[in-house]
Automatic annotation (TrEMBL):
GO cellular component: endoplasmic reticulum membrane
Membrane topology, as annotated: Single-pass type II membrane protein
Intracellular or extracellular location(s): Endoplasmic reticulum membrane
Biological role stated in the UniProt entry: Cleaves the distal alpha 1,2-linked glucose residue from the Glc(3)Man(9)GlcNAc(2) oligosaccharide precursor.
Residue stretches making up the Glycosyl hydrolase family 63 N-terminal domain: 2-139
Domain called Glycosyl hydrolase family 63 C-terminal: residue spans: 228-708
Major subcellular location class: endoplasmic reticulum
Provenance organism: Geococcyx californianus
Protein name from the UniProt record: Mannosyl-oligosaccharide glucosidase
Entry's Gene Ontology molecular function annotations: Glc3Man9GlcNAc2 oligosaccharide glucosidase activity
Highest classification ranks of the organism: Eukaryota, Metazoa, Chordata, Craniata, Vertebrata
Keyword Endoplasmic reticulum: yes
Amino acid sequence: VLLGLMWLQQGEGGSGLRHTCEQGDRLSRYGWLLHDGENFGIQEIEDGKLSLKTEFVKRPGGEHGGDWSWRITARMKGTGGPAPLLSLFFYVATDGQGMLEPHLENGTRLAAVTGTTEELGHFTLTFLRPTAGSGEDTKFASYNSLDAPSPGLHRLSELVLSSLRSRFVFAPPGGLRRRFFGVDAIGALPESAQRGRLLLHQVTLEPPATLEVTFESGSVTERLERLAGQALSEALKKHVAVFEHRFEQTFGLSRKGFSVPERRFAQAALSEMLGSMGYFQGHSLLRSPLQESPVPGPEVALFTAVPSRSFFPRGFLWDEGFHQLLLGRWDAALSHEVIAHWLDLMNADGWIPREQILGEEARARVPSEFVLQDSETANPPTLLLALERLLPDAPIPFLRRLFPRLRAWYEWFHRTQAGPVPHSFRWRGRDPELERFLNPKTLASGLDDYPRASHPSADERHLDLRCWMALAARVLGTVAERLGEPAEAFRATEQALSDNVLLEQHHWAPELGTFADFGNHSAAVELRWQPAAPAAPGQPPVPPRLLREVREAPQPRFVGALGYVSLFPLLLQLLRPDSPRLPALLDAMRSEQQLWSPFGLRSLARDSRLYGRPNTDQDPPYWRGAVWVNINFLALRALRGYAEAEGPQRERAAQIYRELRHNLISNLFRQYSQSGFLWENYSDSTGRGQGCHPFAGWSALVVLVMAEDY
């Protein structure tokens, strides 16, 4: 069963219908302020002068999850006259299976829906009449309803828009009569688009107002009272108190001296991540070396957090490991469930698609060039970061279920991503269109346009992947030992990949004074506009093209691009505390001409040739200077480790740690206070949030930074 809300501020001709989170809607702010991931949530939405507050509570019971209630409070700010009419559209739809039965009052008001599905059994959904917000007195409203074949969630907005008509009149007793758009005739939809049944309840009123919806499970046999009105208010109050106590017990921000606004910010960061979690079902489209055409993957299910509700509302493999670092601290059992879901996506070879675009709804939100998942392309195994944190308290049966999949994944990396010399590794799947890109992208690494060797080849050695594989060997070895399984091979690989002498041999660039990738590289590469070729007779003119120009032939060398990749031996703490290379990395981190900014560590040094440079005329710089919270989190975690270990850089690491932590927290809190959002990344020159928003994916790791819980 799909349940949801749309709204429309009347007078906008229907063009302002809000439904799915879209960055293009340009809402002032929205997000979950409190959400415990299981029992309740409170969200605030500001859409121009309209303020919406959505609250829900679940009450366990019966055999199908129990009851659930939802409250929507609508207010208008500063209208100076009659408030504009607001229409709220509550819908319930089946998606492939299940039965729904509408119960109408006066032929127009959808008062309730009864239904049955495999997962929920019998249930009743009741739409209570709106109240004025301050009491229980009902408020005048106009009602419309719609009963239509469901076209699938990704087409519900289209269906509602096509059925809106302006012939309806809002006529409160003794009040102003006004026309409004209401659902009426059903837009034409082909039979092939029908996936089930949609029932929609439209309430049109003048804010302020409060509306409640109750879901009551048929298998709850002892129900003392409906979860509505005062009972819902009391339940919300109780859950808020429990949440705030649990949040302080878990993260201790009050004890650390953070102000109330700072603590509210941290609660909202965690809550937005929890409130963005979703359950997805469908199949990916795969590119296989064994098939010429794309093939559909198997039907799978995925329970996961997502990076961004508005822009990336789906699962990303390397993001998810960072998400689970935070969620695992809040609810270890929830994190176990998510990690298990991800590992169950593995195919027989041990490969997990890096981006989970499952089904029509997901594919409708993704540009076509990113839909296909290549079975030779990896993604950093960050789930192992989260699993390592969970290991001390992880139940043995859980680890025993995971271990065969972890081992298959580990072996797939060694089999498919091996480098040209022993104990080296190479990301596959770099962009083959050399002439288009200033530096061909490496999407597999997660660092997309971070500068690599200018000419991709089989001779590349990628530093970050080598460090990820050292982490993988360490975690697999620990899990094997916990289970009494053979661990010697994992420990031997861990020792080889952690060997600082071998690491330097493969990746220390004396001429650069830092660690680096190795490959077929030319530093003399530019993008230049190429004049248009003469048009063929009768054909439109050919536009000029921005193409890559190589002014010096590439040769095997270390890649001069000081940035996040250079830091990986430090970030994953492979460097010994007494390493003679540690001071150079600390110097680069603290240098304002290189990686240091007042807002966090920048992704590429300011004195790098590709700093801030676009990759094509359509690709602005991404990992070429901006401050990213996930890597700053790893840097803080590592600095804390070096500050606590015996070694000559102990005091320096502690000082950089304190300054970096202060800068990161201060800027994220300041940007949230000004904009209302966490952001994908932050400008290294102004600190302003940039990229997509809200981004309560890895940017929410600021909660752990505030708690100093690494």
